[in-house]
Write a structure and sequence with these properties.
By secondary structure, the chain is of the alpha/beta class. It is built from 8 helices and 9 strands. α4 (116-128) runs antiparallel to α5 (133-143).
């Protein structure tokens, strides 16, 4: 590749963010499905949680990456966007419960392409933050493929009123970190007892758990080349966690 009259060799150690990667708020990021070339970039974000809003469970590479770095990987099953809104309001409520507590921050939320599904979730978050509609829709269009927003997508956010449970501590970007008991259009209930770190989550995905179990089987005598490559970049390298 030529840049500024010089030949630049593309290497596997270059830092490449996921497609449509962007910051939503402090310690909350959004984008498309992370591929192998994005893992080095994500490692540098010091993530505690990745929320995959996709039709099928995450790939083994992403599961292994999260397991190796002790990143919580949450799969919220949602159909691929095909021109109409099929996002269950209950799933949006789960998403809001996760991202509005700093327990799992920094966090990365993604769908397949980082556009409509992620955009709908972020719009509902903005509604919870009491953003003006115009600002909510303009932000959505920045990431949509055709830079447009449909009437159905607008109506989904306008009519979203699924009850949500919020758990402290809250980030400063949500009502200044203060406790509010009433929202103009979204029913809110507060859970004043934060969940234990080792307590199973209600959204734990059995297929992800199965993949993690496979990673730790004794017949697996080494990490995949992808994770080994990350180790060579300076990541503390050990295989013991896959053999205990």
């Amino acid at each position: 590749r030529v840049h500024g009259g010089k030949n630049i060799k593309m290497t596997s150690t270059q830092i490449i963010p996921p497609f449509r990667f962007s910051r939503v708020e402090d310690d909350l990021f959004r984008g498309g499905y992370p591929t192998l070339k994005n893992l080095s970039f994500l490692r540098r974000q010091n993530l505690k949680c990745i929320i995959s809003v996709i039709p099928e469970p995450p790939t083994i590479d992403l599961v292994e990456f999260c397991d190796f770095l002790n990143i919580k990987l949450i799969h919220l099953k949602a159909e691929k966007f095909m021109g109409s809104v099929r996002l269950p309001p209950a799933l949006v409520a789960q998403f809001l419960k996760i991202v509005t507590s700093t327990v799992d921050h920094p966090a990365y939320i993604h769908c397949l392409d980082g556009a409509n599904i992620t955009g709908l979730l972020v719009m509902c978050l903005r509604k919870l933050q009491n953003w003006q509609e115009t600002c909510i829709f303009n932000e959505f269009m920045r990431f949509s493929e055709d830079r447009e927003i449909s009437k159905e997508e607008k109506d989904f956010v306008r009519h979203f009123a699924e009850p949500i449970i919020l758990t402290q501590p809250f980030p400063n970007w949500l009502w200044g970190g203060r406790l509010f008991t009433k929202h103009p259009s979204i029913p809110i209930r507060h859970n004043n007892q934060p969940q234990e770190k080792n307590q199973p989550e209600i959204w734990d995905d059995p297929e992800i758990t199965s993949l993690k179990t496979q990673l730790r089987r004794p017949i697996r005598n080494k990490l995949s080349p992808n994770i080994q490559a990350l180790a060579l970049e300076g990541l503390p390298f050990t295989t013991s966690r896959y053999f205990d």
